[in-house]
Write a structure and sequence with these properties.
The chain is an alpha/beta fold. Helices cover about 40% and strands about 15% of the residues. It is built from 10 helices and 7 strands. The protein has a 7-stranded parallel sheet with strand order 3-2-1-4-5-6-7, with helices on both faces. Helix 1 (about 15-25) packs across helix 10 (about 250-260). The chain is globular and about 55 Å long. Bound molecules: 1,4-dihydronicotinamide adenine dinucleotide. 1,4-dihydronicotinamide adenine dinucleotide binds near residues 172, 220 and 223.
Length: about 290
């Protein structure tokens, strides 16, 4: 039987989530995605109209099929958590069952189980502010959307994950080294995500024989990264200073994710795997 993957955080064809979906599809997995509710309509329409067809092409020439798209807002665990203004917001009112618990229940109803869970989402409303100028609410929102969202996804999807399954999230080196410009508590959120990767590897490994790893990815011109505002500078910096002097493609991260979620990586869990042309290994710029 082929593997089934649920990838949370796909809303266009520019980000790491899309590339991971493609690498998993190329390896034979069935693809389900979770798309942020406010981005759902545009994503579904663009997909239907063929706007992504060029980037759906897999190495064998076929097109990646997304079996089902689920609406998701990973900052809410269950319907009781959703504030009234969000519930009645017209970008949300058109969709149903998009809290984490409900999304897991829908996937269970539709497909029974999954093998691979991917968390490719982050949000920090104050990301452009230095940490010293970040509000408590901004900081907590960054951790809620970017770190606890993974704890919650794993908690709710673990019961429907087949033993031997694997989970992947995406992190950034700003968790452990100073990257001025990655503010708003996003550096703190990535540090939490990496620490949780270890604790959750233990808990999910013991409980369900599921592996938990995170990929520390180099800079990519995604929608989210463009919103931060310094992505071109980070790409240039990497080109100049990394051991491998080439622009990082999303596919390279996708392929690493496919490896980590495959039996080839059956003894790897609790790891931060760098997919960044080696930039993390440099001590100084050159
Ligand atoms: P992206 O824009 O393709 O992906 C972020 C996704 O998160 C979007 O689809 C957005 O709709 C979704 N999202 C935001 N809030 C959400 C919520 N509450 N519930 C559900 N979905 C929500 O951008 P990218 O850059 O591919 O981001 C994916 C992951 O990669 C993130 O964790 C990011 O921090 C990480 N990363 C990105 C790097 C880069 O240079 N682009 C470098 C290292 C890590």
């Amino acid at each position: 039987r082929g593997k089934r993957a649920f990838i949370a955080g796909v809303a266009d064809d520019n980000g790491y989530g899309w590339a991971i979906a493609k690498s998993l599809a190329a390896a034979g997995a069935e693809i389900l995605v979770g798309t942020w509710v406010p981005a759902l309509n545009i994503f579904e329409n663009s997909l239907r109209r063929g706007k992504f067809d060029e980037s759906r092409v897999l190495p064998d020439g076929s097109l990646m099929e997304i079996t089902k798209i689920y609406p998701l807002d990973a900052v809410y665990d269950c319907p009781e958590d959703v504030p009234e203004d969000v519930k009645t917001n017209k970008r949300y009112a058109g969709s149903a069952n998009w809290t984490v618990k409900e999304a897991a229940e829908s996937v269970k109803q539709d497909f029974g189980t999954i093998d691979i869970l991917v968390h490719s989402l982050a949000n920090g409303p104050e990301v452009s502010k230095p940490l010293l100028e970040t509000s408590r609410n901004g900081y907590l929102a960054a951790v809620s959307a970017s770190s606890y969202s993974f704890v919650s996804l794993l908690k709710h999807f673990l019961p429907i994950m087949n033993p031997g399954g694997a989970t992947i999230s995406l992190t950034y080196i700003a968790s452990e080294k100073i990257i001025p410009g990655y503010g708003g508590g996003m550096s703190s959120a990535k540090a939490a995500l990496e620490s949780d990767t270890q604790v959750l590897a233990f808990e999910a490994g013991r409980k369900h024989n599921v592996r938990v790893n995170t990929i520390s990815a180099g800079p990519l011109r995604s929608r989210a990264a463009k919103a931060i505002g310094f992505i071109d500078m980070m790409i240039d910096y990497s080109l100049e200073n990394a051991p491998l002097q080439k622009e990082l493609t999303a596919d390279e991260v996708g392929n690493a994710a496919a490896f980590l979620s495959s039996p080839l990586a059956s003894a790897i869990t609790g790891a931060v795997v760098y997919v960044d042309n080696g930039l993390n290994a440099m001590g100084v710029g050159v």
